[in-house]
Each structure stands twice: as structure tokens, then as C-alpha cells.
Write a structure and sequence with these properties.
four-stranded antiparallel sheet; alpha/beta; 244 residues; Methionyl-tRNA Fmet Formyltransferase, Chain A, domain 2; Rossmann fold; globular; 14 strands; 2 domains; four-stranded mixed sheet
Length: 244
């Protein structure tokens, strides 16, 4: 989104999280948005207190609460990849796929103190195909979000969010990654929801694997792409040959 907006607009700064420990060595690593901003030659701000006055700020997966005084000082336009008020929270795309939703979308809201409850500036749905994974849905949501922002940024106006139909998309935890192979439709939806960035886990042929792609055939769960611990991704058939 940053790349696409920067190609069409003059962006005065990019607000990102500070560098944080990551990886096995726990060395400081910059956020992806910071790396992109530096590559594009855009100034970077890492502290909320340093945001200039009276700015219109597009917020995408920032991952940190905005203090009340700053909410009133700036207009924060939050990009949320769901049809709010459905799937408020941290994992809207993943939870929509786990639920087997046939459509999702993008909602632009004004940020308020309550989680993803602000008034709506724009909203548009798109269908979710039976083979779409989270990566495909996020890509489509990104394209749509830029289109909606093009319409809204010049003069945003807002309508209240509906009070009916509120659901919450909790953050993905370790228990969410485990597949119940006795429920094949749900298991395939979980694989789609966690691919290509998290990964669902199962025990196949007595071995633990991460499952990246699967389908249902004749009512059975059929893995198509797996990854053994410490190994690379491969087709299920290739993995079976390795076991033999």
C-alpha cells in the first residue's frame, strides 16, 4: 500500500514501529514499512509524539494503541480488511477464511478509542474463491484499499458503523494452528487461512508437518503441500517418497 500511495501522492513522512528484536540472534530489525520508506526516500518517524500537527494519517496494521490526545489532534484513517462490523480485531482475513466466508472486503474508518468501531468513510466487498488463501485475500484487499483511499482522501465523510453483526477476529494463537483432520472442510479452511505466512500443523504418517495447501476429496482431507521441521516446502507426494 505504501508503494502504491507513494507513486500517486506526496507523502510527508511514514510512521512505523521502532526497530525491535527479531530472529534467533534477537538483533534489532526494522519494520517492513520502514525499509520500504527508506527505499522510496521518505522520512521515517518512529515515535507518535513526533507526528506533526494537523496531519491526515493513513493507518495500516500499525499494531499499537493511539493515545486519546493524539486521536483528537489528527485525522486517523484506518484501513481494515473486513466488512466491519464483522471481524473487528487483529486477524480479520484469517478468521474470515476459517469461518468459510464467501466474501469479505475493505472498510476505511475513522480511528476511535474502541477497537475498530469508528465511523465508516468507505466500504466495499469482494468474493472469496474456494482456493483463495490469506495471501490472495490480502493482495486483493490491498488493491481495493488503495482505490477506496483515492476516493476518500480529498474530503473524507463518515457514517456510523452498524451496531448489529459485530464479531471479533482474535489474534492467531498456537492452538489455532492445529488441524482437526476428522473435520476436513474446517481443516482445509484453516490451511487456507494460515497460508502462506503462518502455517497450519498436523501429524501425518506419524510425523509432524506444516501444511501449506490442501483440499477435500470424497469427504477426506488431502494434503498437497507440506513442510517438515527444519526442511523446505514440498509436495505431499515428494514428502512421502522421502519417508520411504
Amino acid at each position: 500500500m505504501l508503494e502504491r500511495l507513494a507513486a500517486r501522492h506526496q507523502i510527508p513522512f511514514v510512521l512505523t514501529q521502532p526497530d525491535a528484536p527479531a530472529g534467533r540472534g534477537r538483533g534489532l530489525r526494522p519494520a517492513p514499512a520502514k525499509l520500504t520508506a527508506l527505499r522510496l526516500g521518505l522520512p521515517v518517524i518512529e515515535r507518535l509524539e513526533d507526528v506533526p500537527e494537523e496531519q491526515k494519517i493513513v493507518l495500516v496494521a500499525y499494531g499499537r494503541l493511539i493515545p486519546r490526545d493524539l486521536l483528537g489532534r489528527h485525522l486517523w484513517l484506518n484501513v481494515h480488511p473486513s466488512l466491519l462490523p464483522r471481524q473487528r480485531g487483529a486477524a480479520p482475513v484469517e478468521r474470515a477464511l476459517m469461518a468459510g466466508d464467501a466474501e469479505t472486503g475493505v472498510t476505511l474508518i475513522k480511528l476511535v478509542e474502541e477497537l475498530d468501531a469508528g465511523p465508516i468513510a468507505a466500504q466495499q466487498a469482494f468474493p472469496v474463491g474456494p482456493d483463495d488463501d490469506a495471501g490472495a485475500v490480502y493482495d486483493r484487499a490491498t488493491e481495493l484499499a488503495v482505490e477506496l483511499l483515492e476516493r476518500v482522501l480529498p474530503a473524507p465523510s463518515f457514517i456510523p458503523q452498524p451496531e448489529e453483526g459485530v464479531t471479533y477476529a482474535e489474534k492467531i494463537g498456537a492452538e489455532d494452528r492445529q488441524l482437526d483432520l476428522s473435520r476436513p472442510e474446517e481443516a482445509v479452511n484453516r490451511v487456507r487461512a494460515l497460508s502462506p505466512h503462518i502455517g497450519a500443523r498436523a501429524e501425518l504418517e506419524g510425523r509432524p508437518v506444516t501444511v501449506w495447501h490442501a483440499r477435500v476429496e470424497d469427504g477426506e482431507f488431502v494434503p498437497l503441500e507440506v513442510q517438515p521441521p527444519g526442511g523446505r516446502r514440498m509436495t505431499y507426494a515428494e514428502w512421502l517418497r522421502g519417508l520411504r
